Amino acid sequence: MSANPPEQPRIGVDEWVASAAERRARTVAGRIEEIGERTPAAVKLVALALPFAVFPLLVDSGYLMQVGIDTLIFVLLALGLNVAVGWVGLLDLGFVAFAGLGAYLYAAVASEYAGRHWDATLAIPAIAIAVAVAGFLLGLPSRRLVGDYLAIVTLFFLQIWLVVLINASFTRGPNGISDLHPLEFFGRPVTSLDGLYYVALGAFVLVVAFLYLLNRSRTGRAWRALREDELAAELMTMPVNRLKLMAFAVGAGIAGVAGALFAPVQGAVFPANFDIVILITVYAMVVLGGAGSLVGVTVGAVLISASLEALRGPDDASWLFYAALVVTLVLLVRRPWWMPLAVLGGTIAFGFVVHEVAEQVRPSLVAGVPVGQARIDELVDSWVLLPENIVTADGLPTGAFGRLLYIGFVAAVLALTLIRHRVWRVVCLVPVLYLAAVVWENLLLPQPAVARYVLIGALLVGLMASRPQGLFGRLRVEIV
Amino acid sequence: MDWDKLVQLLVNGVTLGSVYALVALGFSMVYGILKLLNLAHGDVLMVGAFIGWGVIGWLGGAQDPNVAVWILIVLMVLAAMAGCGLLGVAIERFAYRPLRRAPRIAPLISALGVSFFIQNSVLLLFGADFRSYDTFDLVDVEVGIEFGPLRVWVVRLVVIGAALAMMVALWLLVTRTKLGKAMRATAIDREAAAMMGIDVDKVIVKTFFIGSALAGAAGVLVGLVFGQINHFMGFGYGLKGFTAAVVGGIGSIPGAMFGGLFIGLAEALSVGYIEDFTRGRLGSAFSDLVVFLILVLFMLLRPQGIFGKPDVKKV
Fold first, then answer.
1. Which of A51, B10, B58, B214 has its CA 20 to 30 A from that of B81?
2. Which residues of A touch B42 (CB under 8 A)?
3. β-bridge mates for residue B153, sequence order
């Protein structure tokens, strides 16, 4: 034990490892965690579910309730994925296929098309078990595979699943199955948005409680041991293969529940509901919150689901984007405290100067109109360069200029990360921030549906490079 | 037995296979050196196809190119190789290198993000519509070599020839040059190679450049043969290329070539015959299923592939 731990964390030095818990206890995150440890599980569960429970009381718009239901279903998906990815460390890229299986199974037991009508009290547990079995079966050929092979086999499986859904006749192909029966509990159908929301919330509470207990159990500890060091776990006589299969099955079962709730909420199922886009979105949720932490995964899922929804319309999207830009700025230059303000002021001044110069030199560079109607867009109009006709009515760049602007911006962001010198870094940050606003207003905002997925991809890469443990995760202390 | 159909399918299979082999080589080289599955590799191929498409448009379009057709094709391939090589280097530098000491799952998730980012960026800049190479305007379908009753379109021969030439060049590079020796040494043991004075980082960068350049060339070749490209095309080629690398034995160059050919032929034959064999129950779209079954079978029975050596786990 060292009395003076070194300033810089030195991975692989034993004293540093030994004092890790001690140092953690001194940080804010460590204190919060300590409080978490001492609180009884039931209180924590209530605290986690409370914001969801009061949400319907605060909003009175059907649209927001729909968003709430979708968010809860996304939370369920993220919790299911967390079992394989966060706890066991298996990269399961076929995960959303199980959600699809759950949804299609619901269509098979409760729809006009299938001619059957099961009560949800029977259907949902049955679907959960059936999908868990399917997860087990997919795990069978994959169980010997280490991370990378597993990833590709499961990704290929997802592709096959989509091929079957689209081309098989019994799934009605891309048209999907659209006359599903509503959820029915003991003969009472649930059709109101509030009702569906509380059903989803009930499923969330059950799943979180189940996962919490599972994580504390012998199996949960074995899973974590497996994630940290498979070889060592095997030497400790842990049944490695069986544990992996269990993780697959549990994750798949939860995905099945999410799918079985999603199908009646939407009233229909389509192959496109469960494709790669959803897969990567769910991955972003798990990674943002912090793989392995139930609270983290829940928060990550809510954040991403809400942001994706806000990014649909140009007005909310603009606010969100500029807020995110400022947050990023503060994270990048935290010290001294006035530095973010200085950079922000510098960027605003820089923008007005560039705008003024452009107006004098080439008026066509500022002749465009902002996409949004919100107040922020009026401000932006006199600050950001808005060239005329840079995009078509569909939002696609009309020529090489727009494309080069985008590629140049990406290159500038990447180059910025290479600058080591503190002062230069801050100086160069100013034009890059301005460029970000220009690219956003001119290229991303006209196509919000695509822009949000561009941002998700960038978020995944950026998070992995800067904070792989996510918001709530813990960095592993490793002895090399 | 319809021999013409069989021969035609074999030709298709070899064409497809040579493209898969190029993709598999990139996968295999990177995997050999970094033990990292570059999930964004298929998207690099897609970017290559778009660069080739851009070159056609820049040089006057397929109907009336400003230069001779063969020069145009060479320029397309070279531009795609250079552009994709740089893209590969950038991916390595910014998405993988910061994670070299992270848990194994981290670079894979980062790769997933890169793939998603590239795909959606291209979607943002070029839209979801298919873009056409207009190869029929570029090279007449009638131009070709006759084998009995069958005429093989010259573009197919160009694709097969170009792929072969690149594979031979790569083979010579790996076996005969100093860089190749450094690459092999790094693949066997990175730390030991570093101790022997090999600049491992440089070797990794060069490997990424070469592998991605091959994918870029493959993208142009795909565009030439099949005519149409879009932002999502890389996904399928990435999956098939990886399957080819696994079947051949990941990390092995002859394995990647053989695996590519094998998967290409398997796909072409199943496209041609799956309807006959299942009496019309499964359409040709299910050829992916056949490739998937091959992958699963290999994973179960011979995970090290045809040319690979069994994996010995180091403790």
1. B10
2. none
3. B144
DSSP-derived 3-state class of residue A281:
helix
Contact between A464 and B242 using a beta-carbon 8 Å cutoff: no
Residue A26 C-alpha, separation from nearest chain B C-alpha, in angstroms = 25
Asked if A266 and A273 touch (Cβ cutoff 8 Å), the reply is yes
Residues within 8 A of B (CB atoms), A 421-480 only: 443-444, 447, 450-451, 453-454, 456-461, 464-465, 468, 476
Indicate the DSSP class of residue A88: I
**Residue B105 is nearest to which of A85, A159, A454, comparing CB atoms?**
A85
| pLDDT, tens digit, 9 for 90 and up, residues A45-86 | 888 888 888 888 888 888 889 999 999 999 999 999 999 898
Quick one: DSSP state of residue A171?
T
A138's tokens = 């997919």
Furthest CA-CA distance within chain B: 62
Dihedral sign, CA of B181, B184, B189, B194? positive
Could B113 and A159 be called an inter-chain contact, meaning their C-beta atoms sit closer than 8 Å?
no
Sign of the torsion angle spanned by Cα atoms B301, B306, B308, B309: positive
Per-residue pLDDT tens digits for A166-199: 888 787 888 888 888 888 888 788 888 888 999 9
Asked if B120 has any chain A CB less than 8 Å from its own CB, the reply is yes
The amino acid sitting at A176 is G
Q: Are strands A116-117 and B131-132 parallel, antiparallel or unpaired?
A: unpaired
Task: Please determine, for the modelled complex, whether the ipTM score is greater than 0.85.
Answer: yes
Question: What is the full DSSP assignment across A285-343?
Answer: HHHHH-TT-HHHHHHHHHHHHHHHHHTTSHHHHHHHHHHHHHHHHHHHS-SSTTHHHHH
Count, residues in chain B:
315
Asked if A350 and A437 touch (Cβ cutoff 8 Å), the reply is no
Nearest to A141 among B242, B243, B299 (CB): B299
DSSP structure class, residue A180: B
Contacts of B57 in chain A (CB under 8 A): none
Q: Do A456 and B114 touch (CB under 8 A)?
A: no
Which phi and psi (to 5°) does residue A391 adopt?
A: -125, 160
What is the model's pLDDT at position A2? 44
Q: What is the pLDDT of residue A19?
A: 76
Contact B124 A160 (CB under 8 A): no
C-alpha A77/C-alpha A82 separation (Å) is 9
Q: Are A358 and A365 in contact (CB under 8 A)?
A: yes
Residues of chain A within CATH 1.10.3470 domain(s) are: 42-310
- C-alpha separations of B196 from B8, B31, B185, B193 in Å: 51, 21, 9, 5
Regarding beta strands B131-132 and B144-147, do their DSSP bridges make them parallel or antiparallel, or are they unpaired?
unpaired
Q: Does B110 touch chain A (CB under 8 A)?
A: yes
Look at residues B45, B42, B46, B26 and name the one whose alpha carbon lies nearest to residue B34.
B26
How far is it, in rounded angstroms, from Cα A174 to Cα A216?
Answer: 42
A62's CB contacts (< 8 A; 6+ apart) are A193
Size of interface A-B (CB pairs under 8 A): 150
pLDDT for res A151:
83
Return the sign of the alpha-carbon dihedral for residues B1, B7, B10, B12: negative
Rounded distance between C-alpha atoms, residue A35 and residue A30, angstroms: 9
Domain A42-310 classified CATH 2.40.160? Answer: no
Residue-level pLDDT at A480: 46
Q: Between B31, B289, B295, which is nearest A163 by CB?
A: B289
